[in-house]
Amino acid sequence: MTTFSNTSQIKILIVEDDEFMQAILQKFLSKTYEIIIKPTGMDALAFMQSGNLPDLIISDLNTPKLGGLGLIEQVKLSDFFNSVPIIILSGEESSEKRIKCLDTGADDFIVKPFNPAELQSRIRVVLRRSGKLTADL
């Protein structure tokens, strides 16, 4: 079985305005990762600009004050934040939206409702690809 030795030090910034979804993500992810939740893209950018660099951003596509697509654009334009991987969560199943987000710089796109175990797996894949997570075989 594969284990991951350094997950407790991984910081995930969640950008989600829905309190129910915040609670679900907190419940499932805080057992493994350090979780920071911000309700808007602007709050997330301000948090990062104040010196906080997450290992991963998970953002809803439709948050107020800078949605997921705008957040991707801002993060990827920044010399300081452009290496932070981004996973978009959305209730929108539009293939066009998924393609736009991925082409803009998102590392993955997950449609809500989602299976928490699948989200955990996709997080591990993105973190391994970015070099933030190592597997112990």
TrEMBL record:
The modification 4-aspartylphosphate is found at D60. Keywords: Phosphoprotein. InterPro entries: CheY-like_superfamily, Sig_transdc_resp-reg_receiver. Residues 11-127 form the Response regulatory domain. The keyword Phosphoprotein applies. Gene3D superfamilies: 3.40.50.2300. The keyword Signal does not apply. Pfam families: Response_reg. PROSITE patterns: RESPONSE_REGULATORY (PS50110). Signal peptide: none annotated. This is Response regulator transcription factor. It comes from Mucilaginibacter ximonensis.
